[in-house]
Amino acid sequence: MVNATTLTFVVYLIGMVTIGIIAFRLTDSLSDYILGGRSLGPGVTALSAGASDMSGWLLLGLPGALFAAGMNQIWIAIGLSVGAYLNWQLVAPRLRIYTEQASNALTLPDFLENRFSDETRLLRVLSAVVILLFFTFYTSSGLVAGAKLFEATFDMPYDAALWIGAAVIIAYTFLGGFLAVSWTDFVQGTLMFLALIVIPFVTLQQVGSWDAVTAAVAETNPEFLDAFHDMTVLGIISLAAWGLGYFGQPHILARFMAIRRVSDIPLARLIGMGWMVIGLFGAMFTGSIAIAYFGPDQLDDPEKVFIVLSQVLFHPMVSGILLAAILAAVMSTIDSQLLVSSSAITEDFYRQILRKEAPETELVWVGRISVVIIALIATLLATDRDSSVLSLVSYAWAGFGAAFGPIVLLSLMWRGLSRNGALFGMVSGAVTVVVWKAQTGGLFDLYEILPGFIVCGGVAILVSLFGKPASEETLVEYDRIRAMWR
Fold this sequence. Notes:
With 486 residues, this protein is an all-alpha fold. It is 78% helix and 0% strand. This is Sodium/proline symporter.
């Protein structure tokens, strides 16, 4: 007999696929498939950006980190909040205007090529390769999180859980493209928000009071209450540096490009930041209160703390809804990553280099087939059930933040950035992340995004200042478009 939790899950999955089918009927062109025809309202934009950003990390990785290490993990949340706000404030309006004005750029590589009038196509090809490389790891992290959820909920083998989760995500992303991804993200973001309020609140009621929580945590390990426990200045900077990643995440930047109009951005920013801050606090409270609830006996896998609380504290039907929120967090990021990766193949390789005259219908189907291929590769990489969600996310986040972040900021805020500056900066940032990560424990135990970001920005500026300057055509076009956002 099917229990209530399973039934809730099945209904949720059917709903997501249904949204994909509806979006399929509204998707006629590559622009529709990649950016939804630039038609997203502020609410959908905000929750879609937030849900695709946070992923399973918010409900699995962050509560697990607080449960295992205590309040010193709060610096990640602080850095992310500051970075997200600056991204909405500085990048969102400029990128929305520039991408539409610069030959209606549909992807980040498309924008970079148009921004620097790069006839060699090196910027497009290189940035597309970076997207495919790091999104492979990012997508794998989400699939690991989803498989852990199915495994814990339905007591099924990890491999079976992995492939079932991947199949559902492939289905609606394949069918509906950006509209399906954005609409499902809106639903998923709402579920995540509610779950991150309900779980810590109910757990706190079971424990008794916040004083009881702090007393229990202190009994387990008094240092868990200290945000500066085992932290150095460099360590705090390293955790807070997560916020730098926002400026270079293609799946988040795509939401800025797709919003209906620039005047909708302030409302979208308000909704998005409110959702994010409350969600981060909910995740941190969940991890801390769980220490008091479970006592000194730690869970075998701290990243399952949210799952276990959902199962032991609630009626199976409610538990199913809360666990669906975790699945929502996972799916909302994977689908966005698959779509951006598919867009890189379809728009930046297939149409621009292989088949310039390809009809729209053909391009949409190339995009759909690309979704399937990329998802299968990522699923194969995720077959290692011992992979840490937080570790996989941190590597991909650093890769994008260091390779694209400084280039996006400079390209939108400094007219003097040259094509060669952008090209060499991007390469140096990506290489720095890979080399830094390859060192045992990381050089100086510093998160690789920070040195990568600094190297990328520094190289881009130096090459632009002392190498071949930006072309006159690029400067004129930059001045023309910049006048529109003043």
